[in-house]
């Protein structure tokens, strides 16, 4: 089992590296986030020993148990956030990718322990404008970003998106290009903010995301294998 995880992990790293070269980008400019939701701590420890230090989790209770065992890793919360779950997220994670409402940002700021560094957050953007998806519309990002950036104990770092699925590379690239333009618009309007992160791209579309400026790709299946839905 460990050999197959390591092999898959190396294959994903090679894909990221090659996509960066194809896009004339420095491979160091893209961070690989291993999405470890529903996966056992043993798999995380194997990857950690092979150099992976950043892990993404969707479920609060499951992730807290993992963080307790491996507190020195960098933990990213990437799932939907319920208001009654903001406190443990604020207390235990270094990054939150899925801030989709002003209220959630306010609660995370209020509940972030002041003895910890500011919590790095990303605004989730419903870039494909799907009725079933959470997230700010692009116009709402421009409206709410100043209010969220002003909150204490938070560090607004950029944007995150899960676009509508597409099978063709050119179609995959379109929403990612819109995300890149939206981030650039924010950077131009607020040059003093530390906006340096575009979290986008998963197992099926990481190349398209990297071509369009992703700085962080979130990979689960192609590293850990198929998801076990019985554990969700």
Strand order of the largest sheet: 7-6-5-4-3-2-1-8
Largest sheet: 8 strands, parallel
The count of β-strands is 8
What general form does the structure show?
globular
Tell me the name of the CATH class: Alpha Beta
> Overall pLDDT, averaged?
95
Stretches where pLDDT is under 50 for at least 5 consecutive residues are: none
Q: Count up the domains.
A: 1
Examine the secondary-structure arrangement and name the CATH architecture: Alpha-Beta Barrel
Query: How many angstroms separate the termini?
Result: 22 Å
Relative helix content: 40-55%
The number of helical runs is: 9
**Might you state the CATH topology name?**
TIM Barrel
Q: What's the alpha carbon Rg, rounded to whole Å? A: 17 Å
- Reading the helices and strands in chain order gives HEHEHEHEHEHEHEHEH
Percentage of residues in DSSP E strands: 15-25%
**Class from helix and strand fractions:** alpha/beta
CATH superfamily: Alanine racemase
Describe the model.
With 232 residues, this protein is of the alpha/beta class. The chain has one domain: Alpha-Beta Barrel (TIM Barrel). It is 43% helix and 17% strand. It is built from nine helices and eight strands. It has helices spanning 2-22, 41-49, 60-69, 86-92, 102-111, 138-149, 169-189, 206-211, 221-224; strands at residues 31-35, 54-57, 74-77, 95-99, 119-125, 154-161, 197-199, 216-219. Strands 7-6-5-4-3-2-1-8 form an eight-stranded parallel β-sheet. The radius of gyration is 17 Å and the shape is globular.
Strands, helices and their partners?
Layout: H1 2-22, E1 31-35, H2 41-49, E2 54-57, H3 60-69, E3 74-77, H4 86-92, E4 95-99, H5 102-111, E5 119-125, H6 138-149, E6 154-161, H7 169-189, E7 197-199, H8 206-211, E8 216-219, H9 221-224
Parallel strand pairs: 1-2, 1-8, 2-3, 3-4, 4-5, 5-6, 6-7
Helix pairs in contact: 4-5
């Amino acid at each position: 089992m460990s050999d197959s995880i390591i092999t898959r992990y190396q294959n994903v790293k090679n894909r990221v590296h090659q996509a960066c070269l194809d896009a004339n980008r420095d491979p160091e400019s893209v961070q690989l986030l291993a999405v470890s939701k529903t996966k056992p701590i043993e798999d995380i420890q194997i990857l950690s020993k092979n150099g992976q230090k950043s892990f993404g989790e969707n479920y609060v209770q499951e992730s807290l148990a993992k963080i307790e065992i491996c507190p020195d890793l960098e933990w990213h919360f990437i799932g939907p956030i319920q208001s009654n779950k903001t406190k443990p997220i604020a207390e235990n994670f270094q990054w939150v990718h899925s801030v989709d409402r002003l209220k959630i940002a306010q609660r995370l700021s209020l509940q972030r322990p002041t003895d910890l560094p500011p919590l790095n957050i990303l605004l989730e953007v419903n870039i494909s404008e799907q009725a079933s998806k959470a997230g700010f519309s692009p116009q709402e990002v421009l409206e709410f970003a100043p209010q969220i950036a002003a909150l204490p104990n938070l560090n607004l770092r950029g944007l995150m998106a899960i676009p509508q699925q597409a099978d063709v590379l050119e179609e995959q690239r379109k929403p990612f290009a819109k995300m890149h333009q939206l981030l650039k618009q924010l950077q131009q309007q607020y040059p003093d903010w530390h906006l340096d992160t575009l979290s986008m791209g998963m197992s099926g579309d990481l190349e398209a995301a990297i071509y369009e400026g992703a700085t962080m790709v979130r990979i689960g299946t192609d590293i850990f294998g198929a998801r076990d839905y019985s554990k969700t």
